[in-house]
Specification:
The chain is of the alpha/beta class. About 50% of the residues lie in helices and about 15% in strands. The chain is built from 6 helices and 5 strands. It has a 5-stranded parallel beta sheet with strand order 2-1-3-5-4, sandwiched between helices. Helix 1 crosses helix 5 and helix 2 crosses helix 3. The protein starts with a strand and ends with a helix. The model has no long low-confidence stretch (mean pLDDT about 95).
Length: about 150
């Protein structure tokens, strides 16, 4: 599994913690930064991760900002992305199993590093259940494909 990861300045510390976890797990990943503590705009960092996951270059993405909200909103603007904002282990399991989420968003100012590591491990290891959930995920794609 190939992971794309990014944050804004508000998620730098937690992103580095998750990168350490990915290394510990032997996961292949690319860190899209930022590589500075200067203030940056979260859409500029969410978009490249979301686009690369949507294109299939990466299997999944992880985005971190202060709350995770801005990153998740930005990522979900990219066609084919199902980004879930998660701050507990149960939701991490459910969003993979039921929603087939392909991008995880978390908030550094909301959760600590220990919980973020558990969420990430759960989210990375959980498989999509398919079955009755596939129809629901397809309906999400259908909405996305409608012409307004």
């Amino acid at each position: 599994m190939k992971i794309a990861i990014s944050s804004d300045h508000g998620g730098n510390v937690l992103r580095k913690e998750i990168v350490n976890l990915l290394n510990e797990l032997g996961m292949e990943y690319q860190d899209f930064g930022p590589h500075t503590d200067d203030s940056v705009d979260y859409p500029d960092y969410a978009k490249p991760v979301a686009e690369r996951v949507a294109s299939g270059e990466f299997d999944r993405g992880i985005l971190i900002c202060g709350t995770g909200i801005g990153m998740s909103i930005s990522a979900n603007k990219v066609k084919g992305i199902r980004c879930a904002l998660v701050h507990d282990v149960f939701s991490a399991k459910a969003t993979r199993g039921h929603n087939n989420s392909n991008v995880l968003a978390m908030g550094e100012r909301v959760i600590g590093p220990g919980l973020a590591r558990e969420i990430t491990k759960t989210w990375l290891s959980e498989e999509f259940e398919g079955g009755r959930h596939q129809n629901r995920v397809q309906k999400i794609s259908d909405i996305e494909n409608q012409i307004n």
